[in-house]
Design brief:
Nucleotidyltransferase, domain 5, five-stranded mixed β-sheet
Length: 339
């Protein structure tokens, strides 16, 4: 026979359990799914970036689940455009938050599936419960320091500007081909102004104005690239980038690759394969998952760069036409074109 028990009115019956939460982030609205693992999820929709309302939702979910104010909150969200500010804000509140690599989240690819923010939030919450139960269900990203995160800006901006430079150059060349004009000089180079003065009258006025606007954009982008390269070179000379300065000792590695190595990639292979004297480089704090390389082509490139100075290395003797011998570094960099 079952009997009911009445709790004393002056006694706090809240439990010291855990509250699990998933954040489905978007540009305008966030979807929050919260549960203690025993009840169904509580779903809330808040304005993007409204941290005060997020705290109110956590309090409501804690009350619904009968948890005390001192219970542990374990949220998660996918890495994306919001970066690390939300993670750092939650850590300051004493919350055990994790940031998930979106590419590691399991999905059913056998058939078409429904995909909404609510379903994605519930999926994250279910996987979060499995993660804290001891199952490894995804890759967790490591938070970089504020200084390390800011140090990535220079080489990433340079990479973006270089893509823009190529886009403007290709656009000008394509516009010239509309009237069978082929630039026999580097577009945007030192001889480009004289070449354009000779051919500018051979195109219609509107097209001429468009090409001149593209040329102005190209000049602006090249000036920005030049200014960033000068500032980066000055930082290396002043000793503000010690790891990049050490990588200068490696052969055939340019400044862009050195900066990307220091701020995002692993350096053990570059140091091990280099013919230069060994240097000690510490693995940097990376925002990428544990055990994953930040980029793939620099790994093959630094392997080739390191073995190109070895006389018995097949990769370094390719141009000489000598017999190719087995070299692990060459196997890794077999598809890298010689320069």
């Amino acid at each position: 026979m079952q009997t009911t028990q009445t709790a004393p009115q002056d006694k706090d019956t809240a439990s010291q359990g855990e509250l699990f939460a998933s954040f489905e982030l978007a540009d305008k609205k966030w979807k929050l799914s919260l549960s203690d693992g025993r009840r169904g999820p509580s779903r809330y929709t808040v304005d993007a970036g409204d941290t005060d309302v997020v705290l109110e939702c956590l309090t409501k979910a804690r009350t619904r689940c009968g948890l005390s104010a001192q219970c542990k909150v374990r949220p998660c969200y996918e890495a994306g455009r919001d970066g690390w500010w939300l993670h750092r804000w939650l850590v300051v509140l004493g919350v055990d938050n994790i940031v998930v690599d979106a590419a590691s989240i399991e999905v059913n690819r056998r058939a078409r599936r429904a995909k909404t923010d609510r379903l994605d939030g519930d999926k994250l919450l279910a996987m979060l419960l499995r993660q804290h139960a001891g199952e490894r269900v995804w890759s967790v990203l490591r938070e970089p320091s504020a200084e390390a995160e800011d140090a990535r800006r220079t080489h990433r901006e340079l990479a973006r500007l270089m893509h823009e430079r190529t886009a403007h150059t290709n656009r000008i060349g394509s516009l010239l081909l509309l009237h069978n004009l082929r630039a026999h000089t580097v577009i945007g180079g030192r001889d480009w102004a004289a070449c354009w003065d000779r051919h500018r009258t051979q195109v219609p006025p509107l097209l001429r104005a468009e090409i001149e606007r593209e040329s102005a954009w190209l000049k602006l982008v090249k000036d920005q690239i030049r200014a960033l390269e000068v500032a980066r070179r000055q930082e290396i000379e002043d000793g503000k980038q010690p790891l990049v300065a050490q990588l200068v000792r490696l052969r055939a590695i340019g400044p862009n690759f050195k900066s990307s190595c220091v701020t995002g990639a692993l350096l053990e292979d570059a140091v091990r394969l280099s013919p230069a004297p060994a240097v000690t480089l510490q693995r940097p704090e990376s925002h990428m998952p544990r055990g994953r390389r930040w980029i793939s082509w620099p790994d093959r490139f630094d392997a080739w760069s390191g073995c190109r100075g070895e006389p018995d290395c097949a990769q370094s003797n390719r141009r000489a036409g000598r017999l190719r011998r087995h070299c692990p570094a060459c196997d890794r960099s077999r598809r890298v074109p010689s320069q």
